[in-house]
Amino acid sequence: LKSFEAMMILTVPEIRAAEEFTMQSEPISSLELMERAGSVFAAAILPYCKNVSSVYIFCGPGNNGGDGLVVARHLASKTRVVVVDCSFNLKTTSEFLQNKKRLESIDVEVIPFNHFLEDLTLSSNILLVDALFGIGLSRPLSEDFQRVIALFTQTQGYKVALDLPSGLYCDQHTPDASFCVKVHRTLTFQFMKLAFMMPENYDRVGEVKVLDIDLKLPPEFPLQYGSINRTYAKRYLHLPHRFAHKGSQGHGLLIAGCRNMPGAALLAAKAALRAGAGKLTLHAPQTVLDKLIPFLPEAICSPDKNADCFSYVDDDMLAMKNAVAVGPGIGKNQQTISALKDLITYKPWPWIIDADAINILAENKAYLTDLLPNTILTPHHKEFERLVGKATNDFERLQKLREFAKRYQLVVVLKGAYTTIADSHGSISFNFSGNPGLATAGSGDVLTGVLLAFLSQGYHPLIAARLGVYLHGLAADVAVQKGETTMSLIASDLHKYLGEAINIILEEK
Hints:
The protein is α/β, with parallel strands linked by helices and about 500 residues long. About 40% of the residues lie in helices and about 15% in strands. A 10-stranded mixed β-sheet has the order 10-19-18-17-16-15-14-11-12-13. The chain has a 7-stranded parallel β-sheet with strand order 4-3-2-5-6-7-9. The protein has a two-stranded parallel ribbon with strand order 1-8. Helix 8 crosses helix 17, helix 9 packs parallel to helix 18 and helix 16 crosses helix 17.
């Protein structure tokens, strides 16, 4: 669970700045830094070498290929290693040449790619390492490298990329038709790359592990993308003080549920109480409250005038509330649409808009201009598409997210793997807790309840969003650690792990 602690997402220029700063401040040469990276990679890949007959390392002409040569040297005494030289008589870096020369003193077979094709006799019981190109690639590959990647793709065996799958652009969309290596696992150096955060690249990247090679960032170095991790959560999360009481812990109003979807209200309400709201009022149709009252003895019940759906808002409903959340399971009845418009007119502060309330906004976009700054929206990808239109790729969706949040001065939580949060300035942060077990009905309702708890307690909306997303994901991680699986986890499991997740955040380092 603590492995996510140091995750950071850097762009290529930022990584270059970190490498330069590290070399100057240690000091260390680029050749020595390559030696460090290659040796760390070799140690990380060694467990994958135990059950294979050979390791084939495909080395390009640049520093990624130089890293691959270092890996070959470090693995040579432990398994059979074959270097497939893919430099094609191109100009190589000096570090590549020096490491190629070092290989000559040990028994490692080095085969030029064209000769390798002639003698190709590979079984499926092999490990293939992609060390062709790293983060610097910015243009389509030549025909020679297209042949290499075609062969790499067709060959059976377990495949690992060194730092970045070759052919993948680090900071921008890689077209589907581009020649790009597809691997089972990517072992990347020091920092996550933006391309790894995009669903479109999962088939290329596989599972990612970050290897620590002790790169350092310059002091106060501004980063384009933020990371939501335990370090961030520990900085802002606080327990109630000794003299706290239910009034000081905030009173949240949850507007949720309709006749056909009572469960959404229950999931959100229980999460709000478990995440620390001092008091919770659940406003729901009587048909929903009748079903839920036995399971929510701590909640204050506020029955709607309509027995089946959310249909109105008034002063009494909003009085003495510290935060409001609306949307889980409310449906899109015409009375509900009118009631949401009235709620926007009241401008409750602060508040969260989720689920069907987002879908209503998507069909009535004029309402967006009436939302107060820092209102939190929590769409999943399809709901976000209804708000802003389709994106041709994940990078375009990220840009739409930035522009949408900035235009309407909102905090937008785009749910999914590495849930992405955009703030009213257009800044982007990625969350590093959670697992595929959250891909289940109702997990978003739980998140809404957690966010409502933090808003009710007085956290700034942006901090509440980041903390809530991290805690929600961490609860899922705890659940899996305790014996659930990413296949068996359901939303109602999450409540019982919120407390343990809070303890993990707050425990001493």
